[in-house]
Structure formats: structure tokens, C-alpha cells
Design brief:
This is RNase H type-1 domain-containing protein. The chain is mostly helical. The protein is 54% helix and 0% strand.
């Protein structure tokens, strides 16, 4: 019951608590609705009459938690709308179509792959004007090309990635523990 809860700080509840403290003879009982009990029907009638008033005569404060929840929901909806319509980061959008405040990858190499930033020729071309082509000469140096198509790195992918890596998406592949640990080692020795 709201009167017994220490967490409820509604103005109405606080006033009722004071009334009950001052008048200990007042007892509250739960009564089943609409069963012909005179006091209950009187309360129902009063509640119904209150709905026809032009002005509300009682203030109910909106809980801070509700406001915070609504702000968070609005923020996530706006973020999702921007994420869906942005021309940027389409590679990452292909992996994560939904925004999420709980998703965080603190791994430097994984973040380079997810954002397509760092050592990839396509990114180096965007930032520094270098050639976007891979050293193999077959395609541009994108994340997908290095993982799935570059014959220069086929030995690395065979050695470090799981056998079914062609069936895995980029995210599943980079989150694969063995592939992640071994790719870190190979990037340090290259």
C-alpha cells in the first residue's frame, strides 16, 4: 500500500500520513469495489463527480524517476533517428542497426575494425589522401576486404580465425575469443 511505502513522497500520501498520525483511531481497510457497500458506493460517486469538475483541485507531482525515464527514452529515439538517417558510419550501421547505451567495446583493435578507422587504406585515403587500394591490387583496403577477400592475409585468417569464419558476420568474428587474441598477437608481430 502506498501509505506504508517509505519511497512514496506524493503530497497526497504525505497529507494522509499526517492525518493518520494525528487521528490514530482512523483505520483503513481494503474494500472490494462495486459490491453494494454503502461507503464504497459513496466513494465511487464522489470520484465520478470529481471527473466533471472544470478545475483539478489536487496536485500530483510527477516523480523525478518518470521524468528521467522519459528524457532517456526521448534521447534514445532521437539518437536512433539520427543513426538511421546519417550517411556516416554505414559499415558500423550494418553491424549495429539499433543504438544501445550498454554496448561498449573498449578494445583498440576491435574499435578500429568497427569504425573502419585506423590502418585501413580507405580510411587513410579519407584522412590523408593516400591510395585507398589494398597492397594486393585486387580491391580497396576495406575491413571486409581484409577479412574476407585479401589473399595476402589468407594465411592469417586460416591460422587465427575459426573454420566457419566466412559464415560469420564481422561482429561475430571479431568477438570470437581465439580470433581476437590471436589477431592482437599477429598485429604486434607484423
Amino acid at each position: 500500500m502506498a501509505l506504508e511505502s517509505n519511497k512514496n513522497h506524493s503530497e497526497v500520501i504525505m497529507k494522509l500520513r499526517k492525518i493518520l498520525l494525528v487521528n490514530p483511531k482512523i483505520k483503513l481497510n481494503w474494500v472490494r469495489a462495486h459490491v453494494g457497500i454503502y461507503g464504497s458506493e459513496l466513494a465511487d460517486l464522489s470520484a465520478k463527480n470529481a471527473t466533471t469538475k472544470e478545475k483539478v483541485d489536487i496536485k500530483v507531482k510527477i516523480p523525478r524517476s518518470w521524468i528521467k525515464n522519459q528524457l532517456k527514452l526521448t534521447m534514445l529515439q532521437e539518437w536512433q533517428a539520427r543513426w538511421m538517417s546519417s550517411p556516416n558510419s554505414r559499415f558500423l550501421y550494418g553491424i549495429f542497426t539499433e543504438v544501445n547505451t550498454k554496448r561498449c567495446h573498449g578494445d583498440f583493435l576491435i574499435n578500429q575494425i568497427l569504425t573502419t578507422h585506423g590502418c585501413f587504406p580507405v580510411h587513410q585515403h579519407r584522412i590523408f589522401g593516400k591510395s585507398p587500394d589494398c597492397q594486393c591490387g585486387r580491391d580497396q583496403g576495406t575491413v571486409s576486404h581484409y577479412v574476407y577477400g585479401c589473399h595476402i592475409y589468407s594465411e592469417v585468417t586460416q591460422k587465427y580465425f575459426p573454420k566457419n569464419f566466412f559464415q560469420l558476420g564481422i561482429l561475430e568474428l571479431i568477438l570470437n575469443t581465439r580470433a581476437k587474441m590471436d589477431s592482437k598477437l599477429s598485429s604486434r608481430t607484423s
